[in-house]
Amino acid sequence: xxxxxxxxxxxxxxxxxxxxxxxxxxxxxxxxxxxxxxxxxxxxxxxxxxxxxxxxxxxxxxxxxxxxxxxxxxxxxxxxxxxxxxxxxxxxxxxxxxxxxxxxxxxxxxxxxxxxxxxxxxxxxxxxxxxxxxxxxxxxxxxxxxxxxxxxxxxxxxxxxxxxxxxxxxxxxxxxxxxxxx
Length: 182
Description:
By secondary structure, the chain is α+β, with helices and mostly antiparallel strands. The protein is built from three helices and eleven strands; from the N terminus they run H-E-E-H-E-E-H-E-E-E-E-E-E-E. The protein has one domain (9-181): minor pseudopilin epsh fold.
């Protein structure tokens, strides 16, 4: 009797492997998309923390400025150059200078964006009437929220509490319809 596997046994094994892969790959891809969106939100939160830290260290206002570009919303840090806070007019005049290059989250975390779920609509930046999130030398910041969306539709919010400058990241739980820490 010859040892080895028959063609039927090999085909049956390959069918089982293909079925398991067809189930696992989409689940894994969705988990990767959620992880990227969560990381992008934490990165944005860390940039707010950096702005606050620089404002205290430099004894000057430091702000994150969000700008609409064809590739999506970008952001970068600016420092106050004339002791009157970071202002858009002073940025245009070159008085308040950039501390870094513009950052687009999609460049760092593919499939993510500063955006709100298409079904919800609305503004992805809730910073009052400005596109600046400013931090003062005393450690306070502009209150507001910035929303990060993942490719799979996952939604995260970066919330800044103005009086303390505290930053937290929340995730929208679509099952319960509420924001949860995460």
